[in-house]
Amino acid sequence: MVCLGNICRSPLAEGILKRKLIENAKDWEVDSAGTSAYHQGALPDDRSIVIADAYQLDIRDQRSRKVRPEDLNYFDHIFAMDSSNYQDLVAICNDDHQRAKIMMIMNMAEPNLNINVPDPYWGNDGFDLVYKMLDKACEAIVHKL
Ligand code: 4NP
User: What letter would DSSP give residue 115?
Assistant: First the structure.
């Protein structure tokens, strides 16, 4: 799960998908990262922690990190939250095999529409929408992959 800062959107995506995997008895490995290192080592944003809490989800164990080149080999699927994250990821790929792993996350729920999960960092009101969008995308991931 990849966004820009790895403090708002992708920590929610990681937490939501991990819970769904437990509920569906699947033992896939899930991690999240940012295309930037702006918040390296930081907890998720307070507003993401609060919205996760509202859905009885605890994401306080997560710490921000930057995407590593080896992630593109290690993981089978890499989900970008928006088109900017998608382009930044494609730009660090070495080959078509890596490129083929990268997908805009909302395309799992609504194929081919290239819908962005909006960056909620600069406002205060986007977090519930982000949660609901990611919940829908993660539900599709669990059942389609
Ligand atoms: P995220 O949100 O990519 O969903 O974690 C952001 C976090 C930090 C910044 C931008 C977006 N920032 O510019 O520091």
Answer: -
